[in-house]
Amino acid sequence: MHVTYYGQSCVAFDFGGTNVLLDPFISYNDLAKHIDVDTLRPDYIFLSHCHQDHVADLVKVQQNSGAKVAAIVETAAWVRKQGVPKERVIEYNFGGTLRLPFGDVKMVYALHTNSTPAGEYAGVAAGYVFFVEDKKIYFAGDTGLTMEMKLLEDLELDWAFLPIGGHYTMDVDDAIKAARFVNCKNVVGIHYDTFPPISIDAAEAKAKFEGNGLQLFLPGIGESMAL
Q1: Minimal CA–CA distance to 187: which of 170, 69, 32?
Q2: pLDDT of residue 37
Q3: Whole-number Cα distances in Å, 73 to 64, 85, 91
Q4: How many CA atoms does the CB half-sphere of 34 hold within 13 Å?
Q5: Which GO terms describe its molecular function (predicted)?
Q6: Span 200-218, mean pLDDT?
């Protein structure tokens, strides 16, 4: 079981041969120009929300792969409008858990706005908890620090993917608090460095996490790591 980071909030999980892609934004990211988006063949795509920097490559990747796309109801409606066949779209909502061949995926709260790239209503943003074999993985998506995260503290999470860039989401300091809220010591940073407002000092960020008894992993774009 491993994950590959593709920049911004785009990550790809390999769950024992099943490939799950989240928030595909690659070809429009100047930091990820060396990634050939046409080579991606996920079995499933999960969207945390519908902002451009999370869905820009959705249609191309879905058409190339035939992946099923899972999202909150209103974002799922937008996905269908992009020409993705309705039988390839899975809509669900907070509290819902998908029972999929590779494991279970529960939709959880995220504190963030949501609209389509055209500015239309797209429901609200969400996060996900993946229950795969013996691993529990939290993908927070775009979110501010919120007390709802404490609802996850008893899950004994193995990994938490948390935004750390600030400005539009949590910053490093709030992500440290979030890691405590969800009771997870292994954090992979997402949503940072893509644009000037969300640039971070990586060494300083890692030192802050370490000083709080936590590990912050910042894989390079295109780099994979074991989970």
Answers
A1: 170
A2: 97
A3: 23, 15, 5
A4: 7
A5: hydrolase activity
A6: 98
| Tens digit of each residue's pLDDT (9 = 90 or more) over 162-206 | 999 999 999 999 999 999 999 999 999 999 999 999 999 999 999
SS percent in the chain: helix, strand, coil, step 5: 30, 30, 40
What is each CA distance from 174 to 17, 74, 112, 164, in whole angstroms?
A: 34, 28, 15, 8
Which helix (H) or strand (E) segment holds residue 130: the answer is strand 126-132
pTM attached to this predicted model: 0.98
Joined together, the tokens standing for residue 179 give 């890691």
- Per-residue pLDDT reduced to its tens digit, 57-79: 999 999 999 999 999 999 999 99
Give the largest CA-CA distance in the chain: 48
Q: Is 73 helix (H, G, I), strand (E, B) or coil?
A: helix
For residue 13, the SS3 value is strand
pLDDT in tens, 132-158: 999 999 999 999 999 999 999 999 999
- HSE at residue 144, side-chain half, CA atoms within 13 A, is 6
Pairing of strands 18-22, 44-46: parallel
Neighbouring residues of 47: CB distance < 8 A, sequence distance ≥ 6: 22, 23, 54, 55, 58, 69, 70, 71, 72, 75, 79
Instruction: Return the domain boundaries, the chain.
Output: 2-226
Chosen CATH of 2-226 out of 3.50.50.60, 3.60.15.10, 3.30.70.1120, 3.40.50.300: 3.60.15.10
CB 23 within 8 A of CB 47: yes
